[in-house]
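Entry:
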Amino acid sequence: MEDFASGTVGASKTPAHMLSSTRLVLIADDYADAREMIGIALELAGFQTAFAENGAEAIERAMMLRPRAIVMDLSMPVLDGLSAAAVLKKDERTHHIPIVVVSGQGGDIAKRASEMCDGFFTKPCALDQLAEFLERAIARASGEASAG
């Protein structure tokens, strides 16, 4: 996964400075197996991946890396995914980045996440469908950015 000492990000150990922002997806989940599983599936679908273990780290990485999309768990330590998404959606540098929630939570928090974010998948989810959704969300965001 991430190796901060060597300056690499992602399952493929790509140096952070060599990541292409055109296919980069940030995966924020406190559960290492979930990050790895989603990361591998997205890399097989042609994406590059970077990772965050909590909401605060997700905000930091999003500001630094400017990914094309973010996959966000809701229940994380330090700062939860809903709070992190709210910060990212309010910041002019990141408000255009599609955020797709992948969470096992339901109820009111899932409803709020669905209203704030660009997509919601319940864990466990079909990773090929997540990859297809990300493709469409990135295309929509790119079209809106070039039109605006």
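Residues 127-147 form the longest helix (21 residues).
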